[in-house]
């Protein structure tokens, strides 16, 4: 029991350190964006690095409703700062899809932790998903990720829980995420033009 408590403490301490690091990163990035114009940020780190940073932030922070604000702020900073909108949207969409795939996998593996009663409900939901026309779910995924501000992690978890085919959802997730980021970038550029 004592050994178990020590392991739990160790895991909690590690998770606390990760949470503190993420919070400091978000606060630091927010302060950077607030005090330094986007053009200076992009010219300081370089356009090529901005694509890598966008991919990493999209993979880590872009997938969750809790951390999306810092992700969108950095994306908009890079777009307004002069990074290529289409390429940046492509990189961001791939990063977001990577994160969505992680949540899909978590849902698929986590279903085993549910009670028997809950697993029966999940099985009913699986049956319902199988009744939906074959193009229905991928189209829904595309429109959900491409035209709403709702986080893709929830959808990814749900599709993983009901064991929906990964090969049927990955492309709609990616196209939807890329579409959404193009829209965000165009709105940011339009806002930048209007502000000038």
Explained architecture:
By secondary structure, this protein is mainly α. It is built from nine helices and no strands. The chain has helices at 2-35, 38-45, 47-60, 68-80, 85-110, 116-131, 136-147, 152-161, 166-195. The longest helix has 34 residues, at 2-35. It starts with a helix and ends with a helix.
**Helix/strand class:** mainly alpha
Q: Name the average pLDDT.
A: 81
Q: Strand content of the residues, in percent? A: under 5%
Number of strands: 0
Tally of separate helices: 9
| Helix-strand sequence | HHHHHHHHH
Largest sheet: none
Percent range for helical residues? over 70%
- Unreliable spans are none
The general outline is flat
Distance between the termini: 64 Å
Radius of gyration: 19 Å
Which features does this protein show?
0% strand; flat; 9 helices; 196 residues
Short description:
This protein is mainly α.
Topology record:
Blueprint: H1 2-35, H2 38-45, H3 47-60, H4 68-80, H5 85-110, H6 116-131, H7 136-147, H8 152-161, H9 166-195
């Amino acid at each position: 029991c004592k050994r178990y408590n020590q392991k739990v403490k160790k895991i909690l301490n590690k998770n606390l350190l990760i949470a503190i690091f993420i919070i400091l990163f978000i606060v630091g990035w927010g302060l950077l964006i607030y005090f330094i114009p986007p053009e200076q940020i992009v010219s300081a780190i370089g356009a090529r690095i901005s694509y890598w940073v966008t991919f990493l932030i999209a993979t880590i922070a872009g997938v969750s409703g809790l951390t999306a604000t810092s992700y969108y702020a950095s994306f908009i900073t890079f777009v307004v700062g002069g990074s290529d909108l289409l390429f940046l949207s492509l990189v961001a969409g791939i990063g977001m899809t990577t994160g969505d795939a992680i949540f899909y996998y978590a849902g698929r593996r986590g279903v085993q932790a549910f009670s028997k009663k809950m697993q029966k409900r999940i099985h009913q939901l699986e049956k319902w998903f199988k009744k939906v026309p074959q193009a229905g779910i991928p189209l829904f995924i595309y429109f959900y990720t491409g035209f709403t501000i709702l986080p893709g992690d929830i959808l990814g978890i749900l599709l993983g829980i009901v064991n929906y085919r990964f090969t049927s959802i990955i492309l709609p997730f990616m196209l939807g995420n890329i579409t959404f980021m193009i829209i965000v970038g165009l709105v940011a550029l339009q806002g930048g033009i209007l502000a000038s």
